[in-house]
Amino acid sequence: MSTWTFGHTAQRLPLREQMFPIDVVNNTLHLSAMSIIRERVEGKTMTQVTRNIPLEQARDLLERVPRACIGFAGTSGAQSQPCTLRWQNERYFVGIPANAVMLPQNGQEVVLLVDEGIYFFDLRACYIRGQLVTSEQQASTTEVVWYELIPLKTVAWDYGELHEVRDAG
Length: 169
Known about the structure:
Layout: E1 3-5, E2 12-14, E3 22-23, E4 28-29, E5 47-50, E6 52-53, H1 59-64, E7 68-74, E8 77-82, E9 84-88, E10 91-97, E11 109-116, E12 124-134, E13 144-158, E14 163-166
Antiparallel strand pairs: 1-2, 3-4, 5-14, 6-13, 7-8, 7-11, 9-10, 10-13, 11-12, 12-13
């Protein structure tokens, strides 16, 4: 087995640990290119890098909707369906083509994803998980069936806004 010497510890470590070398003296984890995680040592708090942002920072995605799709469980497994989103008065109205292969059932839990960007630091999205109920606010036509999404969980992210946050624990 190949070995190498890590810093001042003069201990021989397996070659596989070169990617994530461990400083056995201080019991901390170091990543060579970027320090993503700092272990809790002697009362220090852990920090991590996150892409998550408050939903308010991604409001423009909900207003102009570059791309939107929903995911839900169907009879033959997971289903994905492009959709139309109307965000009005903090409410989510989802339109699905009436001729879609499969429509979600009234009251079914779904995930709505609104995203944009093709390059890493341009990737932005809003993820809304919740329950779909048939909408009476939006006029359903023969072309589009409208639902209202009642959110249970919302998450927004922006890879151009990577930042470090402290662990609450």
